[in-house]
What we know:
Metal Binding Protein, Guanine Nucleotide Exchange Factor, Chain A
Amino acid sequence: MPELQGQCMCGAVTVTATPAQNALGACHCDQCRRWTSSMLVTFEAEEGYAALGSVKTFASSDWAERAFCAECGSVLWYRITTEGEMHGQTLMAAGLFPDTGHGLTHELFIDKKPQGYAFAGERQQMTKAEVEAMFAPLEEGDSQ
């Protein structure tokens, strides 16, 4: 997939990233809605992305951090920090880039989405419980 070039609202942070898949996802969790005043729309970035400029990070949960521009506050990414197979996975804010060329394929925390908006079309939708189960520690003897 082609490498994308983007920037924050004020231009203090520039980002170069290659999407790992032809897919956008939307998260409706309480934190994403507070962070963006809506839902967070992202794509998974391949390793080797670059962000230059005034980047700040915030550990928003036991398993992830969020990055934003220290100058204008633009959302940059959400990164998995917990150990495991998803460690280091980075979800780039789609709005940083002029056009990713990808469609919306999944929505997370669908049971937390306010009634005031909805996307047209079919896509995978996961509830809060389903998303949290992805991050639950494995019990001894669990083969997952």
